[in-house]
Amino acid sequence: MKKDKVFWATVAPLAAVLSALLLVSIILSLQGANPIEIFQVMISYGFDPRNLVSELNQTVAYYLAGVAAAIGFKMLLFNIGIDGQYRMGAFFGAVVGAAVSLPPVLHVLLIVITAMLAGGLWASIAGYLKVRRGVSEVISNIMLNFIAAAIIAFLLGEDLLGILPEGSQNVQTRPIPLSGQLPTFKMFNGEVYSFLFVAILVGVAYWIMLNKTVFGFNLRATGLSFRAARSSGVNAPGMIFVTTVLSGAIAGLVGLGTLLSDTYSYSMAFPSGFAFTGLSLALLGRNHPVGIFFAAFLWSFLERSAPVLEYEGVPPEIVIVMQGTIVLAIVIAYEVVARINLRQQQRAVGRVNVELVSDKEVK
Amino acid sequence: MGNILEVAGVEKKYPGVIANRDVSLLVREGSIHAIIGENGAGKSTLMKTLYGLIRPDLGSIKVFGQEVSLKSPQDAIALGIGMVHQHFKLADNATVLENVILGSEPSRFGFVVKFDEARKKLLEIAETYHLDIDPDESLSNLGVGERQRVEIAKVLFRGAKILILDEPTAVLVPQEVSELFDNLRDLVNKGLTVLFISHKLDEVLSIADDITIMRQGTTVVTKKPAETNKKELAELMVGGELPRPIAGIQKRSSESILSIKGASYSRFDGREILHNLNLDLHGGEILGLAGVEGNGQSELIELIMGLLSPSTGSVEVLGLDTSTTQTRDIRNAGVGYIPQDRQRDGLLMSAPLWENRILGHQFATPMARGIWINKNAAAQDSKRVVEEFDVRTPGVNVLASALSGGNQQKFIVGRELSGAPKLIIAAQPTRGVDVGAQAIIWDHLMKARSSGAGILLISADLEELFSLSDRIAVIYSGSIVSVLDPSMTSPEDLGLAMTGAKTA
Amino acid sequence: MATDTKKEVKPAGKVKTFFKSPARITIFIAVIFFVLALVESLTGSTDISSPGTSGATLRFAIPLLMAGLGGLWAERAGVINIGLEGMMIVGTWTAAWFGYQHGPLMGFVAAAIFGLASGFFHAILTVKIGIDQAVSGLAINLIAAGGARYLSGVFFPPVGGDRTVSPPVDAFPTFTIPIIAPILEKIDAQDIFFISNLAGILHGLTKDLSLVTVALLLLVPLTSWILWRSKFGLRMRFSGENPVAAESLGINVYRIRYIAISISGMLASLGGAYLALVASSVYREGQTAGRGFIGLATVIFGNWKPSGVFAGSILFGFTDALRVRQSESVMSLILVAGIIAMLLSIYYSISRKWKPGAISAALALVAWWIHQRVDVIPQEFVTVFPNFATLIVLTFLAQRLTPPAMAGMPYRRGSE
């Protein structure tokens, strides 16, 4: 049974990736390019040590977004608000980090906590609306994403919290002093964010919380069946709210790798689109911390190796099409696998029922 | 008047269950024909067969003397058979007229709805049958009785000559019932035929021209109201004899573990579901709660479990006031809960058995250790439950949804009886399970009683109530109308009490 | 037995009845214009009622309207379409490419066809396969955005090395309504209190009109007519309200949803085409700028009614127009809103509705405070006004909204 589970859990994402590759190959062939050659170029470019480092750094952010989405998924919440929550976290983390001076470790800790609080508080609006007002978190979060972006753009104004460094076009927050910065470490001759370890820690904590603690059990139970959880004594609406906030708090960490080890300040150049990426990765990695990690790396790999396609005469955005296709394929594949799985188990139960007529031994 | 509908020898089997066998029914044109029987007597199966939702294995159905084969509701509608479902199939965000004409819209070029024509036709129907409905009212403004009239109008709009009403009074308050009966009389006076399913003997006797009694999947006899009485009908419904109560060891303790005093509960829309309800349960006894479904049982259970709060009165479980105590603390105090809807309230269907073993016990040892889930204990104890309760499964890692209903139920009962609970709420503990599983569950409930637990047994199965209960309380319209001693009570008396006749 | 519960309490719906009567709506709008005229004559700024603003409002409103109607079609049939943004992108790109090749008319036709196809794709995923409606919609957004950028790179000749912009497409002919427009222009120039302000607004709506604008505006009454007068519309509404009931009466819910979602895609795509061909004359990357999501917001704002979606898109289009034109005029607008809130609070107080009265009074105070204390409303906040307004509506009026009961819920044929 265990082996079966692992088999199906790997075969579905692989099938999804392969079908996306197939589709992209067809598109490329139509364009007159040789898909095999293109993929080879991408792989050799993407696995170049220098690029591996930037992929790894990108993975950190994507991974955290994926975990944030996965916590939501466990509660059947579709946290499309990760974008706004991440912005809030990174921005206020940067602002607070620049405003105080503390001993090194404490300083970083403060920034991390601020970011989680900001992300969690921002998510709590959607949580409140969902639990108390019955508003779908999808709609409220889409609106909140736009509003978060606007609030930050406003606060970044030069007379407020933003500064315009000399020779730059981009307003940004004041830089975080050295004590609030996180060092990088050497790997593949490059600088890898040590926030990677925080991300790994979050993944481990997420897994333990979900699978080993009563809180995680209650969370999953509420996601699986609101009514059964309620009957069992769980404060189900409360769990929904708390889960929303928790997902937002993790989302608040998404931008910190870059903030603490690279830019040291928040600017409008911080990328967007983490929400859908996070949701995609959680789907692809089946809400499992290890699965999400591979998915996050795949995503970073695709994005970082895309620019090389330009030299092959292929617009690099084909990669986005590929990502979208992978997501659709994976959702369809899981739908199919879930049906097969249940049928298999039912057959197994049926066999036991027949055996039991002669033999009462239950294993 | 001839027979508009003739059913002969209809049989329908499901794996392991005979839903209908040798069903015969003659319905006279222009009559109100009531069909009565206990839950599970096969009434619904028969009605679904007549409406084309179920295809029988054997037997013949004649409409207007013509042998017919009903493959779908559309076939039934074409033959003039219409059904008013117990659960209305209506949309709130639309008008009465729109709800009525949907699917049979009179239209121009097959595209433009002729609303004026439809409205005229509906008003004519309303006029003819004295149905008080306003075509342009929004459905969201209508109460239950009015909604039912819309459902009736829907059937009439399609030109039905035979109306099947599935437990139409179950959701109505008394005035609405009398309005409905006036409507039904109008319908038959205008030449239509009504088939009426019910539990309630008073109603049946007052409205029906013919009464057919069903029991254990078959039709027993057809009576005329003038020739019978409530007592006889109740007897026919439950069958001649009932099993004698099993003499267990009676160790009724003096302390009350469940005490409900004057509890009332009103729903969000103001409808009072429970009214001044009093109940008392001691350790070491099984208190049966008899009653036709929908008389407040579900709400009573939720009050006891602390999922709802009473609007007045008090509910005390093991000395805890449930309106101020959280469900988890009530459970932790030693309450086992076997919910009526096991798949929705009792199980995480897509989680493995060992996780389902934890459900409801996650706040205390041995399933939890501090903030941690104790997986080993859960797996171990799941194996024990599987063995002791004969749950047919290849292992405890199987998803709950893969088990059959009976095995799911055995697992839930096993789970709720573990940890020696002091109070057990058992709602329909053997509904839909096979005879073997039923015996196992009964056996364990009796054992729990012997070891001093108090059990509130909510059941629609009279055999179960008589076999297990030390006392039987009867709930009707949200109140306890009588408390009976099963050894001194005949099934007829119980049947009468359940249907609201004032006896004790 | 509870004998006193004769009927369930009927919901009162004061706001609903107030806005229902046409005479009252007319009065309400007249009051708004009157206050507007008052404020403009006091502050001396005339930008709000200038023909430029009303013309721009219409141009900004149409894409939102089309996205909103697209969302309405899908949700009325029971499926939420988060892919509107992507479907608009499909529209901008195909309109520009086919418009560039074969003229603007063919651009529109192509946008309609490809939009239909993108909607159909969403329908296959959500109706047939039954995957999560939000996942499908978001994936469509992603694929459309990436696909458009990819195809631009392949097909568009580089304009000065820029692959993100299409070559310019011929413009649609515009026309000015004869006699009326010039008369309005004259009145506007007269500077008569109230009348001139009104004429200014109307002038903007009657000059330099594109035929496409008029044609797309007609989709509002057409959608209303289909929803409430046609057999298909009735069945579509029930597919969204109670698909089980519809199926039990022999209606093919799947087929209805296929059709409705395809049309949803077509409408959103036409909104995109309008952006590329009428509001500008090129495809530009990121041109839709979240308008699909604002369209989704207009559906909620408009309470799932075509006229409401229209009102919502005009309001949001208006804020867009003001943002582009002149930030100071936003301040006059806040004053207008404040005065109207004050009038409302007086109205409510007279009719002894204390709670809404107090809320309106508080709003009036807030508006007054902002007007006194703030010089310029930051552009960022003007931009997200639609999003903010929608969130407020959801928070405070959620109980009054009547969304299709089963929109967004998975539905499998034969389920109970």
Report strand order across the widest sheet of chain B: 6-9-10-3-11-12
Query: Helix-strand pattern of chain A, N to C?
Result: HHHHHHEEEEHHHHHHHH
Task: State the helix count of chain B.
Answer: 17
What is the first-to-last residue Cα distance of chain A?
A: 13 Å
Rg over CA atoms of chain A: 23 Å
The strands making up the biggest β-sheet of chain A line up spatially as 1-2
What's the mean pLDDT score of chain A? Answer: 88
Shape of chain A: globular
Radius of gyration of chain B: 25 Å
- Class by alpha and beta content of chain A: mainly alpha
Low-confidence stretches of chain A: 354-363
Main beta-sheet strand count, sense and barrel state of chain B: 6 strands, mixed
Multimeric state: heterotrimer
Which two chains have the most extensive interface, and how many residues on each?
Answer: A-C, 41 and 44 residues
Chain-averaged pLDDT of chain B: 87
Describe the structure.
The complex is a heterotrimer of chains A (363), B (504) and C (416). By secondary structure, chain A is mainly alpha-helical. Chain A has 14 helices and four strands. In chain A, a hairpin with an 8-residue loop joins β1 (162-163) and β2 (172-173). In chain A, 54% of the residues are buried. By secondary structure, chain B is an alpha/beta fold. The longest helix of chain B has 16 residues, at 174-189. Helices cover 32% and strands 26% of the residues of chain B. In chain B, the strands form six sheets. In chain B, strands 6-9-10-3-11-12 form a six-stranded mixed beta sheet, with helices on both faces. In chain B, α14 (405-417) runs parallel beside α15. Helices cover 72% and strands 1% of the residues of chain C. Chain C has helices at residues 14-20, 22-43, 51-76, 84-102, 104-129, 133-155, 180-190, 195-206, 211-217, 219-229, 231-241, 243-248, 253-279, 291-301, 306-325, 328-350, 354-373, 379-383, 385-397, and strands spanning 174-175, 209-210. Chain C has a two-stranded antiparallel ribbon. The radius of gyration of chain C is 23 Å and the shape is globular.
Considering the chains and any ligands shown, give keywords for the structure.
heterotrimer; B: 504 residues; alpha/beta; six-stranded mixed beta sheet; 17 helices; C: 416 residues; mainly alpha; 19 helices; globular; disordered N terminus
